[in-house]
Amino acid sequence: MTLNRRSFLRGGVTAGSLVALGAVPGFVQRTALAAPTSETAGAKDTILVVIELTGGNDGLNTVVPFKDANYAKLRPTLKLPADQLGKLNDDLGLHPQLRPLNDLLDKDQALCVVQGVGYPNPDQSHFRSMDIWQAGSLAQNLTEGWLGRTLKHLPGTPSFHLKTDNEGSPLAYEGAPVRVPSIKTLEEFQLQLAAASGADKAAQRDVIEGATRTAGGEPGLLDFVQRTAANTYASSRRLQEVARNYQPKATYPDGNPLASRLRLAAQLIDAGLGSRIFYVSIGNFDTHSAQAPAHANLLGQLGAAISAFYKDLAARGHKDRLLVMTFSEFGRRAKENGSRGTDHGSGAPVFLVGGRVKAGVVGAHPSLTRLEDGNLVHHTDFRQVYAAILDQWLGVSSKDVLGSEFKPVPVFTG
Amino acid sequence: MPLDPTPIDPRWAWEPYRPSDAAPWNLRRVGHLHRRAGFGATYAELQEGVRLGPTALVDRLLNGGPGQDEFDRDLAPLAASIAGANNAAQLRAWWLHRMLYTPHPLREKMTLFWHNHFATSNAKVQNAAFMLAQYELMRKYALGGFGAMLLEMSTRDRAMLVWLDGKGSAKGNPNENYARELMELFSLGIGHYTEKDVREAARAFTGHDLRGAELVFNENNHDAGTKTILGKSGTFRAGDVVGICLEQKACPRFLVTKLFKFLVSETIAPSEELLAPLCEQLRKSDYDFGALVATVLRSNLFFSERAYRTKIKSPVEFALGIVRGLEGRIGTTVLADALELLGQNVFNPPSVKGWDGGPTWLNGQTLLYRQNLALALTSTEDPRFGRRTDPAALAKKHGRPTQEQALALFADVFYQGDLPAASRERLAVYAQKEKADTLPVYWTAEDAANHRVRALCHLVLTQPEFQLN
Fold this sequence. Notes:
The complex is a heterodimer of chains A (414) and B (469). With 414 residues, chain A is an alpha/beta fold. Chain A has 14 helices and 12 strands. Chain A has helices at 5-10, 15-20, 26-31, 38-41, 69-74, 99-108, 126-135, 146-152, 198-210, 221-245, 257-270, 291-315, 382-394, 398-402, and strands at 47-53, 63-65, 86-87, 92-94, 111-118, 159-162, 182-183, 277-282, 322-328, 348-353, 360-362, 380-381. In chain A, the strands form 2 sheets. In chain A, strands 1, 5, 6, 7, 8, 9, 10, 11 and 12 form a 9-stranded mixed β-sheet that branches. The chains are: A alpha/beta (414), B mainly alpha (469). The interface between A and B is large, with 50 and 60 residues.
């Protein structure tokens, strides 16, 4: 039995590397290597973390065309001063609060900004438009999500929705062959015991895990169950350790709920469960009035959270496995309203962060003069972004998931 | 999963099993039969099965127990309100309640088999009334004529008309979805028809439609021209296509293979010769599934080591087996939610192929959730189930006051005593151990003892053999 060198070098990915890290007791070493992991389920073990910006993020004040004179005209009070922007190139700059993302671009070449993403005949209802993005479809009746359908092609791949208190499971995961768990803490993904003391807990674990120690005998269903169980318990144990001892290799900002959930994702990734798809959301982007401070605060959280998450995983050797995608159900009206806010709009940028993204800006900024109903016009269908992620990142046929062919946007290197 | 290629003599396989010294009629065979033909047994049902003997027990399972009409009558008003309110969540709970408490478990089990066969999902149909009507259709024919069921499914089932897009399919531009799945998934299997057959059959299915919730046939939309399907030509309609499919030699073979995997084994690769007698019986009996299921359940092969524990329990089998074993009366809405996390959301199969089943039921996520569900069902501390499935109450009911006696009871109910010696030993050691527990000060000695019995039951349920059927 040889250790998978590739995954070992990337660190903490499979049962095999758990063994290498000395985190697994001896009996599992004999059995866990043969148990199902992401290595056997699919050829790749890339990770996708989707961040939903709920409420409609103002794309125009996120990626700012500061050279365009029309920008100041459309945004008399909300315009961001050019000298405070984090420059992406000669014409475009990120909101000042997104400076951590500029750093990811400049130092790590780990940021890709896809401009003008949307869909035909944009819907201005939060709910309908969010459904469309999550379903990856414009059909009238949307009951399945694009990630749920993706998971049909990645059988046995654990995935998670990292939720806030009252958040339900996203439509994006509907249709998955196994319901994707929505969890708030790592405890929810551990083997639970009705033990009254530490000693009792150990005794119970011994009874439960003892029965997996004979794994590796006669091939057959019992052996399969034992091996799966050994792997499951090792992961659960590792998760407990991770929950207790996880030392982030980057500083996650305090008082940033998105950062806390991404830290949870990092723990799950590092625990070596073979998890590949994560979904988190951050709300309150519906900035109809007094937008400037609220929007700055939200983008500040977003930038700091993504940056810490990327750096933590990069330091653990996962950067080339990682892809973070942000999206919002729509952008906002080009011209600000009378309340120093913005109303519902359309076409907006999507951020992709990871070690393998094509660094920089993809596509032109939507025109500020050629508007439709006052809204920026999209030039890239959101399903072209999904298609790139499916075909070139997750290794799942985008045609199978999206129902038809979409030309992938070039967002990955090599 | 490697399949076991050891040849099996077809004559021996399908002859009725007769108890012998080598293959005695015992608790294990009774438990095996109840797990396959139903959703597990209570202690009393196991004991009674031993007393009845194989012939009488199989008879009883085939016919069901007394009180079936009353059971159906009691649940009909609830079905009507679920249909009226289009309540998708209660729809699932309603069926799980039926599976748990019906006097005729085999009928529900076979209905579940047909649900996996026709694999219609309310995720697309979005209509509880249609789903219930399809359920009733499948239950009616669950142990009856497959031909009649397939005909009704193909021509008069509203859920299916929505699910596979037969609705509104019209002459000139027919929708091929139903015609394809009829051949590929419902009757023949891939390789036994051509693309031309699918296209021609789709023409025959034109004209069916829904007007609101009402089934209609629109003669103007029907393609009345001549079609050639699987070598036959005529001005075929939907029913004719169903008839042509049923005449194919591939049809009994396709269905028998599926039933074999469902009732007998997931680890045997059945040879042509082994299945031939069953195929012959099915063809000659005009697709009588009641008779076919009877042959299988009475057979030598079914009661042999080759079939014993050669399936992975589905989530429904896993969870309902615990509830039935504990003799619990539980609300099934929360159970439906739990089963969704284990990967089996009834009335919502993941695709037209249904659930893949077998080893795909288990992975690091679902196995963990199975074990944690077993804890929720045995601890009495989970608000979803409370004390409705209490192992301590079961032990008391059956007069097992000590830990060792409770262990023996649980081992009988859930494994019919068939646990590896080492596992049994570990459990016994745990049962005997002085607990250095820090229990709440207000607990009585009985509270503490009950707590230990519940923990013991949970440990019994976490043994790997419990995942097998």
